[in-house]
Amino acid sequence: MTDVHRRSETKCPICGRASEGGLCKFHEEGAKRLAKHYEVWKARTAVSWRDYLESVSANELAGDWSRESACYLLEKEVRGQRAPTA
What we know:
By secondary structure, the chain is mostly helical. It has 4 helices and no strands.
């Protein structure tokens, strides 16, 4: 099986879209934005990564991709698989 076929079989664990070994491009962007904005929140409020993810995942005004990514990262955090962005 070629690399092209292997990549096309990889699915985003959040939505099932095609990905290149991780999240789809939409949820990857959501996760990047979470990490970027966390630094601002942390500096202003001293909030923990987990509390931040809980806040975003419960916020109906947050964008879908960011909120879904927050739920996914929070689930990984709970399972003990710390996110590299934290």
